[in-house]
Write a structure and sequence with these properties.
This protein is α+β, with helices and mostly antiparallel strands. About 25% of the residues lie in helices and about 45% in strands. It has a seven-stranded antiparallel β-sheet, with helices on one face. The relative contact order is 0.24. This is Ligand-binding SRPBCC domain-containing protein.
């Protein structure tokens, strides 16, 4: 399975503050570079990322193609959390969010392991580049939101 890992230094922020920002559900659509629509009766302002919590959302791929996702939060720790797709447009998708102290701020890391329904050929043609673009944009958004 392909793995994508991106780390960004977020200046002037403590690791616990960056993780706390990520754990607040209201920030999820702000971080994500494409349109996200919660499914079901979800008030994002009340949503907190907690181990075992499941949620559903529609991700508008390229801002026009609707893809429904069901994810579960597998683990939440002092310096990380992990979400995993239960149902959606991929064969498998596991996303680790990690924070660590860095020089002058916090190192924020996204590590994503995934498998496309179309296998390696589709990953090579479309998915790998798409994932890199999405996660690079997420990191730019994090920097902008936490400056």
């Amino acid at each position: 399975m392909p793995t994508l890992q991106i780390t960004t230094l977020i200046p002037g922020r403590k690791p616990e503050d960056v993780l706390e920002f990520c754990l607040e559900g209201i920030n999820f659509p702000k971080i994500f570079p494409e349109r996200i629509t919660p499914l079901g009766h979800v008030d994002l302002s009340l949503l907190r990322i907690e181990a075992g919590r499941k949620f559903r959302f529609r991700h508008w791929m390229f801002n026009v193609i609707p893809m429904n996702w069901t994810v579960v939060i597998r683990e939440v720790g002092e310096m990380h959390f992990i979400d995993e797709m239960l149902k959606g447009p991929m064969r498998a998708f596991r996303h680790e969010h990690r924070v660590a102290a860095g020089e002058g701020g916090t190192l924020y890391t996204d590590r994503v392991t995934y498998s496309a329904l179309g296998g390696a050929p589709l990953e090579w043609l479309l998915v790998n580049g798409y994932m890199r673009r999405i996660f690079e944009a997420r990191h730019r958004n994090m920097l902008e939101l936490l400056k």
